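User: I'm putting together notes for a lab meeting next week and I want to include a structural view of one of the chains we've been expressing. I don't have a solved structure, so I'd like a prediction I can at least talk through. The sequence is below, exactly as it appears in our construct file.
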Amino acid sequence: MRAPTSPPRLITLILLTAVSTLTLNMFLPSLAGIAADFEASYGTVSLAVAGYLAVTAVVQLVVGPLSDRLGRRPVLLGAIAIYMAASLACALAEDLYVFLAFRMLQAAMISGYALSQAIVRDTTEPRQAAGLIGYISMAMALAPMLGPMLGGVLDTMFGWRANFWFYAGSGAVLLTLCWFDLGETRRPAPKTGLEERPGILQVARIPAFWAPALCTAFSTGAFYTFLAGAPLVAVSVFEVTTATLGIYVGSITGGFLTGSFIAGKLAPRYSLPTMMIAGRLVACFGLAVGLALVIAGIVSPPTFFGATIFVGLGNGLTMPSSNAAAMSAVPHLAGTAAGLNGALTVTGGALLTSLAGNVLTPSNAPELLLTLMLLASFAGLLSAVWTHRIERAAVAAEPTTVRS
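Assistant: Thanks for the context. Below is the predicted structure for the 404-residue chain, given as structure tokens.
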């Protein structure tokens, strides 16, 4: 059978993103059971999360340039096949280190997230791409909320291995869907004499990539900082139950879901820097108000977590446009840009999470956590303004280029 020639449907890209996200967190309720089954320490088993995140950064640096050279379709099909086989091996593993090794190979699925964005950019103009990425991003919001719930049910009913059987089945479904629906979308490289230079070097030397990429990294970093500090604030300061904590932590994701939906509607009508700046202003405003209330002594769950919801809302508004802008820096290298952008985001998130974990204490957590999130969001705002200046300079240079 001949490969399809049309771009994939939106639902295919949404499913690729959703499974990429589910692979990180759906099995989290099973960590203790996995440790008990393998008679290992919880810290060792947790490498299935921390190690996986580190490998995803490397995978994105590889699959992005590879997809620009070989095409989106073969790289995605190969990555999904690896993911399916690795998931099956995890489900059957009888040794902890065999399990962890194949768990790292599951990181191939991050290709679904990175390349789905590249495919959108291949097939649409920047503003339309931002709108579609906004809708795809909603899958990133729903999957973390629903994934652990589904994983917990599977673990309770069938044991922890059921999660990995689910992953393997999902891989089989995605492989079949992409085989019939995923036509090649890669843009041919222009004959500029630079095509022999590695794609990452071409992308990394362009400020038009770094400005929106840093905006994405800092915006996501504020969210990662929240994840690192919110449990400490909720339990040590507000003394809430773990069930209530789950609601509070989920609130920021609800904000992201709302912001992504709004971005899907508005992004096609406004410039990418405008959407980026608007989202950063929303995040900074909410955090600044929350921090002012905390400093004034008004410290309560509604005021604290009400402020952090603005981070989710602002990120949902910002990130579809910042991701689209990063991939628009060199359109024929959208895969490389998507991979480098994703790796930068994961690395930045890990660094900010580590920082928050090391400096937050029960005595300073409310005000310091909001301060760290505000600083990250403000850095994202500066990056968005930088993006705006680059775009204005490019537009101003166009008449000169035409006359020359």
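A couple of points you could mention at the meeting. The radius of gyration is 21 Å. The CA atoms of residues 69 and 184 lie 12 Å apart.

User: Perfect, that's what I needed.
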